[in-house]
Input
Amino acid sequence: MQDLVRRYYFLFLLMATLGIFVSATGVSAQDAKQPWMNKSLSPAERADMVLQQLTLDEKLALLHGNGMGHEAKWHMPLTPLTNGGAGYVEGVERLGIPGLVISDAAYGVRDSGANGRYSTAMPSNLGAASAWDTQSACEYGEVIGRELRAQGFNMTLGGGVNLARELRNGRTFEYAGEDPLLAGTLVGNMIKCEQAQHVVGDIKHYVMNDQETGRFVVNAIISKRAMQESDLLAFHIGIDIANPGAVMCSYNRINGDFGCANTYTLHDVLKRDWGFPGLVISDWGGTHSTVKASAAGLDQEQPMADFFGPKLKEAVEAGKVSVSEIDDHARRVLYAEFLSGVVDDPPQKGVVDAAKGLEVAQRVEEKSIVLLKNSQAVLPIDPSKVHSIAIIGGHADVGMISGGGSAQVDPPGGNAIMPPGKGATHWQDHIWFPTSPLKALRAKLPNTKIEFDPGADLQLAADLAKNSDLVIVFAYQWLAEDMDLPSLSLPDNQDALIEQVAAANPNTIVVLETGTAVTMPWLDKVAGVVEAWYAGSAGHKALANVLVGDVNPTGKLAITFPKSENDLPRPAIAPLPKEDQGLPSGNSAKHISTYAIHYDEGPEVGYKWYEEQHKQPLFPFGSGLSYTTYAYSGLSVDSTAKTVAFTVKNTGKRAGTEIAEVYAKLPKGTDEPFKRLAGWKRVTLAPGESQTVTVTIDPRVLQTFNEANNRWNLAPGDYAVFVGSSSESTPLIGSLTLR
Ligand code: BGC
Output
């Protein structure tokens, strides 16, 4: 009998050790030892329990990075644990809290090349925003989340939602356009689904990081009201949807203080007013102080420990930073880990599902391509009439261009325009993916003669154009972090190429591979314009499907294309003063930069600006054509429910999906009369089919912010409501009355 008891006792111990014994109360032995491992508790409860167990050193270890993979200047003893990524934060092994293994992942996982791995490149973030599709945004996030985990990462640095205030900003392609509702909604859905894969989600760069020139020093000057109603609103909407574990504060200053030491944006708005429970992580090298940054609400310095390492400990010991402030920082890191599931479900390295990634990348790009011009229905290509096609320029024989900087995804096989063996990538290299539109089009049109000319010699290109039924010029514009464009003109003499080719053959279509808007001095001379953005790993196939009509384009611009830089709020980006040039990062005690940018346009970003200035853009926000046509009718407004209903009819001969847009204007007498996007719906219709759809007006875009009492105000009165196919084409007009 004693033997039996002893045997059961040992069995019990074994099961308890393995954590598989569950008592009648449902609490496992593991839970009893580490009660924070009980998944039925909330992330906040679990974080609190862990916090109780931590020594000061363990808390402090959660508050800084330990170097950056592949970056010699940011090397620390624990750098090898970055897994080749952007950063590593120690966990608390004895309590089962994993370290944060962090990677950039704007449109795909960064640095896979140097790590001997593969990642899918989704279309650029701005491109994908043109789909106006929360489902696509979600699938986009899922692919990246899965690939991060397969590569051993448990935290992403994707999620850029800075508004396109400055179209020449080198990072425009990483963001989701100019409208706070559209950008916030799409980025929010992307992060939500990415974090659902069990990686800590991140939204960035908080806030007003709207140009790259002087990004480490620039002081963005804007009223609180304007900021609340524009850039901050985009973040708030995104955070509400995604509940991301982390917010990355930006390099720049905002009304004087750095983004990572800014009491107003971090403490007052993000943490106090919005109640954000996660952690604020600094942009890389964006921390410049210890006591000030900590008090303002920075929780974690990256990628080093210059200010939140030994100096933070000293500050605690000297009583300059309280232990409760440290507790708050540490709790937020732990909370993000529990919230995202990285404690319960750490990543398992494996082979990424490349086929699935390519499938999603193609589908998203098919929804992202925007048909800007299509005279005489030159598209889709009809092979019964078009027997020869000239493909010109843009390295279309070998691939399509991508966006650079920390967003860069490495192309399989290296840069398609570099000789073999020179495939290594630098973050400022111009990288073409091996996704040849020429090959994709030949595969789609096997009986059509399709020839290629690189476009280097304008006369040779024009000669080929002249002898072809149809011409497609591929034009590119490269963008990357840490640079801004001098202008919105196509680089490398491409305007002249297009002019000359179109003069030789007016049946010319221009395919744009751009990260932001471009000016088009040749627009009247070409028959078609297709905006393909940075098209991602399967962009060539998506593009070929659109060009031949297997896919009917649905994308609508998430940014306004201006006629000229003179129509922008600032005709040029002010250059960085000489004394600031070449500074490695930020201000120092010896040097406080005077470089500032005044965002005097306030909340009038993009289409709102053009309306207020009575300027006609080249292509308005929300515009994009289809191979079919749609008609709008029958608007009714329900003021109580804040909904509008209307009918969309497909009046053409092809099935298609129309993005129906709803705008609203504040009541007469209010001081912000411009139209603002208030909702939208994607409507899929067979030829001749009608559908009545209901769109809920988002009250957040109707509110104005009162600086004096720090409150939002929804003014009573009559709001004009506009419904249609773009910000400029709104055939239906009604009125919403709020009491
Ligand atoms: C960028 C961030 C990026 C970080 C880590 C910084 O230069 O601004 O967007 O996440 O580097 O690579």
